[in-house]
Amino acid sequence: MKIAVITYEARGSYATEDVADEDKILTDILSELGLDFTFEVWSDERVDWSAYTHLLMKSPWDYFDRYAEFLPWCQKINALGIPAFNDMDTVIRNSDKRYLEEIQAKGFPIVPTIFNSKNQIPDLEACFASFETDQMVIKPTVSGGAKNTMKIHKKNWRENQEQIESLLGSEDFMVQPFIKEVAEVGEHSYLFFNGKFSHAVLKSAKSGEFRVQHFFGGQIHPIDPPLIELANIQKIIDEFAADTLYARVDGVWIEGIFYLMELELIEPYLFLFTSKDGRENYKNAIKERFGV
């Protein structure tokens, strides 16, 4: 058995000193398990992927910056028949956030969303009216780390109309009402390994910011969610991520209802540094998958 652990080219460009390097944590875990592994940059054309028996996805954190390269790479791995965790079909489906439409169609609440195709500029005034809001968030359907994410206000968005419409014309976007609970309370993240709950965190934005990512000054707080919450989240996992090595469910609770924001199945940060149990659960899940 020879494992390629998938990482990205610009190591450290999405990291901060406030969080742990999970590639390093995974290195320690795989070494402890006695597995033969090498970290490989997914976009490195010099790699002979056929030399590996398995792929372990961890941090291809630039996939959305190089999407035109990433999808063919996923298809190449599929064609080679190399088992991957998570598998490439799952990764491809999860790479565009239009997957949220399928989840919503199965009866799971998502943050209200209007999906907009490239070069089809939406009527933003109509979107404000439809959502009955004065603030909206616009972000690409293929993205991560809050890239090209904007918050716009009904009263003054036209001051930047040219810039906004230029961005909307560059790629597919999603338009959502601004959810004040994200800024006031935070965004919940639930981590699952092999379909089983492991640990959870609450990500809160710094004062004056709406993005909760740590590289925008967001804070990460370990939480112990009640069983009634976990039962709700488990249904999402059972329906859409039951056969995944890892999954992260991100969303917000509003008046007792969980609104899904993202189901992360490609390269989620796992917040292992927040939980000793989390690290051990991840290790045990890998051990189970690789039969060691």
What does this 3D model show about the protein?
Strand 9 and strand 10 form a beta hairpin. This protein is α+β, with helices and mostly antiparallel strands and 292 residues long. Helix content is 30%, strand content 25%. The chain folds into 3 domains: 3-94, Rossmann fold (3-Layer(aba) Sandwich), CATH 3.40.50; 114-178, Dna Ligase, domain 1 (2-Layer Sandwich); 181-274, ATP-grasp fold, B domain (D-amino Acid Aminotransferase, Chain A, domain 1, 2-Layer Sandwich). It is globular, with a radius of gyration of 19 Å. It contains 9 helices and 13 strands. The chain has helices at 22-32, 67-80, 88-94, 99-105, 124-131, 161-168, 180-184, 227-240, 276-290, and strands spanning 3-7, 37-41, 54-57, 84-85, 114-116, 135-140, 150-153, 173-177, 187-193, 196-204, 219-223, 246-254, 257-264. Strands 11-10-9-12-13 form a 5-stranded antiparallel beta sheet, sandwiched between helices. A 4-stranded parallel beta sheet has the order 2-1-3-4, covered by helices on one side. The model has no long low-confidence stretch (mean pLDDT 91).
